[in-house]
Amino acid sequence: MTSNDNERSTTDDRCRIITTVADIRTITDSARAGGESVGFVPTMGYLHDGHASLIRAAREANDLVVASIFVNPLQFAPDEDLDAYPKDLDRDRYIATEAGVDVLFVPPVEEMYPHGAVLTSVSVAELSAKWDGETRPTHFTGVATVVSKLFNIIGSCSAYFGEKDFQQLAIIRRAVADLSMPVNVVGCPIVREPDGLAMSSRNIYLSPEDRVAAVVLSRALAAGADAVQAGTSDPTEVEAAMTEVFSAEPRARLDYAAVVDPESLDRPERLGTTTQLLVAAYLGSTRLIDNRTVKVF
Length: 297
Ligand code: PAF
Fold this sequence. Notes:
By secondary structure, this protein is of the alpha/beta class. The protein has 12 helices and 9 strands. The protein folds into 2 domains: 3-188, Rossmann fold (3-Layer(aba) Sandwich); 201-295, Pantoate-beta-alanine ligase, C-terminal domain (Pantoate--beta-alanine Ligase, Chain: A,domain 2). The chain is 39% helix and 20% strand.
């Protein structure tokens, strides 16, 4: 039992909800002062099993586990419906508590951006412009800015992110390295539905028919992985194998099916021992992404 256990306990056994920067800082600062490690899971809420797996990973490795729920306006373009983003705090609190969170940080927008307009931003230049950045040009600067701000608020910690958002994870790793943030970034494996669809808060937007068709993303990745395992060293052949799977699914509109270097996110000339596959496609108006790492020894 540590000095912070009393502070963390609640009468109904659910995690505490904190809404101010000052209060969450007091909690994380005093945990570290007492020799405790802090695990942090940033989210935009509407939690699913993928988020729960991040919280469980943080729980296993840390004394204090904090998750944030903040639907960050900076990462939505004007034509993306920020207000329609799904919300259910009661359900989120239940899922987060079950997964082992101690504290949920749920700041209102005015707490995070007290001046309204945000004049300072974190932009991870080249990494943000390609792939998803081509369709969502302001998205990753919004993500890197809010994540940097959350790291400044939470302080030194291990922070847990899903590998499903592969480009986001690469950008956050790079921002942390470039700006020497005292954060250990931990990537956690993609959690999938039984048919292979990667879990995402966006899956609820899919019509029943599109939900069935959405398995095309993981199938395309499997075809790409098979092509790599078959011994090709030509990225074009792997991309063709993935694209062919999309061609057989009329409900899906392919955005990209690409082979990239896992750090630079550039397309390599030849395949090495680790190949990173990325796909993005629209099912109806819902844009889904997925990825797979293939190692050849
Ligand atoms: O992946 C997300 O849910 C968001 O992009 C993040 C990292 C919480 C930043 O708002």
